[in-house]
Design a protein that fits this description.
heterodimer; A: 224 residues; alpha/beta; Rossmann fold; 2 domains; 32% helix; globular; B: 291 residues; mainly alpha; ABC transporter involved in vitamin B12 uptake, BtuC; 13 helices
Chain lengths: 224, 291
């Protein structure tokens, strides 16, 4: 089932296209890696996918029941916000207006257990390490029951154990039919789970074989 | 003659002003709290100044509206509803302008805000100077006339404060989710843009009404100090929002006996009380952390 389909799309800001002629389709069960140099337009692509930026030109089709779970880079969030870890995860349930309050909290607590942060539920979010924050944000995305997960460098600056937990949880979701779009500078870590890959460069989005992206040559091309 | 011993007499004299102070004490910290969470507290420095410039512009243009001018001369107090349009309009306009500048993230936003503050302050003085009734009203309107507030002023302030308070209460989740992580709120298909627009209009309305009725000093103080105190005392969002209004209400409440017994102006007394409460909260936080 197609979840998002760009056709001849131009992405960017009013009067300024960052990416041109984008033709990408994302279907249920895809694990799509998005890679590219800094400033190549990955963030523009991601912000367009989540609806924060309108298309400059072209079309983007999506089904009415599209539910996006978004995981930003943890360092973009305010450090002073008076909020517990459970509060942050519970925010993911706020889309489900009709669900009972105690069920939402139970869901949030279960998602925290799943990513190994259950004992830290009542701790201040600001006191978590970078890797723990990233896992909590993944839990927030999961409790919104998404059919498309969009993640912005979730394993950058995260220790190996935390990265392994994140990749494992994502792999399980893909098995359940959820589509995953992940921006990363570490494609090698995703070699076993990724099914597709795109390289963002020269104002374009080019689909390349996942084996090529998740190889040393692919990484070399990425850094070139 | 102290407030405590002569409470009944003072209540008769200042009931309207007391209720007005309590209203702003509960509601303004909620607005300041949202600005704090959105990392836009520094925007709040300039917004009341723009509201004051709006009031001054309204006074300058008053002779253009002969009916209002006659009523003003007859009753001797400024036409609040008319001035609110200018105060709230200027506050909303400045909030929109600042959010646009911050969103663009070009240049140094602090410098832009400081420049805007200076310009608004200068405009307020120029308009007041040129307004026929300006100089007489500058004291009562811009310095805060909480002691002189009439029933109509209280109803006006009560109406806009209740509207803003209900809005914060009902839209609490979307506003908090947006303040914490705007992109995620958009991804969750929460009505971010609509609520941000409503928030800007209602907050502008309350700040405008507050500047006209209790004065910019009290508005500044109640916007910024309670969020600092509340954030020092809790790590939970719900408790933070509850403590905002408690800190604000405590400050305006304690300031009454201080102001009357020591014969001090009320607005600055309330701000100094709020500052003392904030200092207490920050000290408490430091002591608890040390333990």
């Amino acid at each position: 089932m197609s979840l998002l389909h760009f056709t001849d799309a131009a992405l960017g800001y009013p009067g300024k296209s960052v990416l041109r002629a984008v033709n990408v389709e994302i279907s249920a069960g895809d694990f799509l890696i998005v890679a590219g140099a800094n400033g190549s337009g990955k963030s523009t692509l991601l912000r367009t996918l989540i609806g924060a930026l309108p298309l400059v030109a072209g079309t983007m089709l999506s089904p009415a029941d599209l539910r996006i779970g978004y995981v930003p880079q943890q360092m973009t969030l305010p450090a002073f916000f008076p909020v517990t870890v459970l509060d942050v995860v519970a925010m993911g349930t706020w889309r489900r207006a009709k669900a009972k309050e105690h069920l939402k909290r139970t869901d949030a607590a279960a998602a925290l257990d799943l990513i190994g942060l259950g004992p830290r539920a009542q701790q201040s979010f600001a006191q978590l390490s970078g890797g723990q924050k990233q896992r909590a944000l993944l839990a927030r995305a999961l409790v919104s029951h998404p059919n498309l997960l969009i993640l912005d460098e979730p394993i950058s600056g995260v220790d190996e154990a935390a990265a392994a937990v994140i990749v494992q949880v994502l792999a399980e979701r893909v098995q359940a039919g959820v589509a995953v779009v992940m921006v990363t500078h570490q494609p090698l870590a995703l070699a076993d789970v990724a099914s597709r890959a795109v390289l963002v460069h020269d104002q374009s989005v080019e689909e390349i074989p996942v084996q090529e992206m998740c190889s040393l040559e692919g990484v070399a091309r990425l850094w070139a | 003659m102290g407030l405590i011993e002569n409470f009944a007499l003072y209540w008769e004299m200042f009931a309207t002003s007391f209720l007005a102070s309590l209203l702003v004490g509960v509601v303004l910290p909620q607005i300041g709290g949202m600005m704090y969470l959105r990392r836009e507290s520094f925007v709040g420095i300039a917004v009341p100044q723009f509201a004051a410039a709006g009031v001054a512009l309204g006074l300058y243009l008053l002779p253009q509206f002969s009916g209002l001018q006659e009523s003003f001369l007859e009753h001797g107090h400024p036409p609040l509803d008319y001035l609110l349009v200018f105060a709230a309009g200027a506050a909303c306009l400045s909030m929109w302008l600042f959010s646009w500048v911050l969103r663009r993230q070009s240049g140094e936003p602090g410098a832009f805000l400081a420049g805007a503050f200076a310009t608004a302050a200068a405009l307020a003085i120029v308009f007041l100077d040129a307004a026929p009734a300006g100089n007489n009203l500058a004291e009562t309107v811009l310095r805060g006339a909480v002691l002189l507030l009439d029933h109509h002023g209280l109803w006006l302030l009560g109406g806009v404060c209740m509207a803003a308070f209900l809005f914060v209460l009902l839209a609490r989740r979307t506003l908090l989710a947006t303040a914490f992580d705007r992109d995620n709120a958009i991804a969750m298909r929460l009505p971010v843009a609509t609520l941000e627009l409503l928030q800007m209009m209602l907050f502008g309305l309350v700040i405008g009404a507050g500047v006209m009725t209790v004065g910019p000093i009290l508005v500044f103080g109640l916007l910024f100090l309670p969020p600092l105190a509340a954030a020092a005392l809790t790590k939970s969002l719900r408790a933070f929002q509850f403590l905002l209004s408690i800190c604000g209400a405590l400050a305006v409440f304690i300031a009454w006996p201080l102001s009357i017994d020591a014969d001090l102006p009320y607005g600055p007394s309330a701000v100094i009380t709020a500052a003392a409460l904030t200092l207490l909260a920050l000290t408490l936080k430091r002591l608890l952390r040390r333990d």
